[in-house]
């Protein structure tokens, strides 16, 4: 076996916290820990492993048959076993860590000498499937799974270069979750990589179950409702953003990958935009932005207009509104809050229930409750249409976590509209803009390229221009290599016979 495949580790005496007998005494308290003595032709051996963590096929086909062969030292045994990542060590901390990671321990003496650790980890994970949150009609149909090895494979398949770097560490006192930081060396800004790495090293928490834990702990502003790292389940999106010079974070056990630094406009850009003609992609992106603004503002404007600003409503429309509210006993704010909370309840019920039941609750519940509330005189049919359209507008957000933020923003705008009318909406909008201006992602302005204005980055912000004009990487990431390709050559779109 070559030297790269075999790692030998030794430790000075006196550095270990626990002795080998103490470690095995603790491990034997678990029923799935196996420790027994066997025999070769010449001498006894001791074998130990966790049967729930070890792949029995590897153990019985690759390790145990070789163990019964003709060998006298661990170095000779290593040459016989066709397995990578073999470790020889006396370090008790390494022994404990590797046993809990699915390694098989083999030793010539029960205690007190070097042991050989053979990797036989049992990997159980679901197959790569369709994206569930970021589904697209056009483009690849692969999504990340809960296995970090499978997820890294999906990225390396799309970026098969030696400059793709993967740095791993473990976080969580109890979970010992494996976390990987991915970036393209020579393209990504080292400051961004260093910032993420140092912030993750400073995490002190007992259990990291999902990547969402990481984004809450390393974000610049923990009290902001806006996500400051982009969350995605699409390998193609991660590969494309790594090529731009950004950094990705993977957590073992999570099918979602974090990307940073990011900007506000990225949360309204679907990766399907890059699979369509630039004119269609720009149109759909503008539609999404309009839908989000409509979702946040339309209900507060309704409340403000009916409470303070009757004179702004056209006469024909005012007659319709007055007739629809003639028998409504509630003021506009309570009417709007009732419908908004009803929509949120239906949405939460549909998300928490099983799929088939949830779909039924969402459709039937919305129709029944909406019709009944209008007929009972609790809400007007005009407001019912407005709230339904606002809910549809919030669904157009490609990134789910940003959709949750949009749902939350409607309520402070409603309260300000009730208190001060249209002036209250303006006040609330100013507070929102001030908060976004202060917000950063890994120290980079969250509103780029809108503010600070970056004209060069506008080509892929509110609209998406043709690929031929995207010759430079976004300025926001401060990439080490800002140039992606030659813009002049890209514009020379001639046939080969011309």
Automatic annotation (TrEMBL):
It is found in: Cell membrane; Membrane. It is a multi-pass membrane protein. The keyword Membrane applies. The chain crosses the membrane at residues 286-308, 358-376, 382-401, 413-437. Its main location: membrane. Pfam families: GerA. Keywords: Membrane, Transmembrane, Transmembrane helix. InterPro entries: Spore_Ger, UPF0353/GerABKA_families. It comes from the Bacteria. Belongs to the GerABKA family. This is Spore germination protein. The lineage of its organism: Bacteria, Bacillati, Bacillota, Bacilli, Bacillales.
């Amino acid at each position: 076996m070559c030297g790269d495949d075999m790692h030998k580790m030794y430790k000075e005496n006196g550095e270990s916290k626990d002795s080998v007998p103490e470690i095995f005494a603790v491990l034997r308290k678990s029923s799935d820990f196996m420790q027994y003595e066997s025999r070769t032709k010449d001498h006894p051996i001791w074998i130990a492993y966790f049967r729930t963590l070890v792949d029995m096929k590897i153990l019985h086909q690759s390790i145990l048959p070789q163990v019964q062969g003709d060998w006298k030292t661990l170095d000779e045994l290593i040459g016989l076993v066709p397995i990578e990542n073999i470790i020889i060590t006396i370090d008790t901390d390494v022994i404990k860590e590797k046993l809990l990671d699915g390694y098989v321990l083999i030793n010539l003496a029960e205690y007190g000498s070097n042991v050989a650790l053979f990797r036989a980890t049992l990997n159980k994970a679901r197959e790569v499937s369709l994206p569930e949150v970021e589904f697209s009609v056009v483009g690849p149909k692969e999504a990340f799974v809960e296995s970090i090895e499978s997820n890294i494979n999906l990225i390396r398949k799309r970026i098969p270069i030696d400059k793709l770097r993967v740095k791993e560490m473990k976080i969580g006192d109890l979970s010992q979750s494996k976390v990987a930081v991915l970036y393209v060396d020579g393209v990504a800004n080292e400051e961004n990589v260093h910032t993420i790495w140092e912030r993750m090293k400073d995490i002190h928490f007992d259990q990291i179950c999902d990547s969402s834990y990481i984004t809450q702990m390393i974000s610049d502003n923990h009290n902001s409702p806006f996500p400051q790292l982009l969350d995605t389940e699409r390998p193609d999106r991660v590969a494309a953003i790594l090529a731009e010079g950004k950094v990705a974070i993977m957590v073992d056990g999570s099918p979602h990958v974090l990307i940073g630094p990011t900007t506000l406009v990225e949360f309204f850009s679907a990766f399907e935009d890059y699979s369509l003609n630039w004119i269609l992609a720009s149109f759909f992106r503008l539609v999404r932005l309009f839908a989000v603004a409509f979702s946040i503002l339309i209900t507060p404007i309704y409340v403000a207009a009916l409470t303070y600003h009757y004179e702004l409503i056209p006469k024909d429309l005012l007659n319709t509104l007055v007739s629809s509210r003639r028998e409504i006993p509630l003021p506009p704010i309570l009417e709007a809050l009732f419908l908004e909370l009803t929509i949120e309840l239906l949405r939460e019920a549909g998300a928490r229930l099983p799929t088939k039941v949830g779909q039924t609750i969402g459709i039937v519940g919305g129709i029944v409750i909406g019709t009944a509330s209008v007929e009972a005189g609790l809400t007007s049919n005009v407001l019912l249409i407005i709230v339904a359209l606002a809910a549809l507008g919030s669904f157009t957000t490609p990134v789910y976590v940003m959709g949750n933020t949009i749902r939350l923003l409607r309520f402070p705008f409603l309260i300000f509209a009730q208190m001060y009318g249209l002036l209250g909406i303006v006040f609330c909008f100013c507070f929102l803009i001030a908060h976004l201006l202060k917000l950063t992602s890994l120290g980079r302005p969250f509103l780029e390229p809108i503010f600070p204005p970056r004209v060069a980055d506008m080509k892929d912000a509110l609209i998406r221009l043709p690929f031929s004009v995207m010759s430079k990487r976004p300025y926001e990431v401060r990439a080490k290599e800002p140039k992606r390709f030659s813009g002049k050559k890209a514009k020379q779109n001639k046939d080969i016979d011309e």
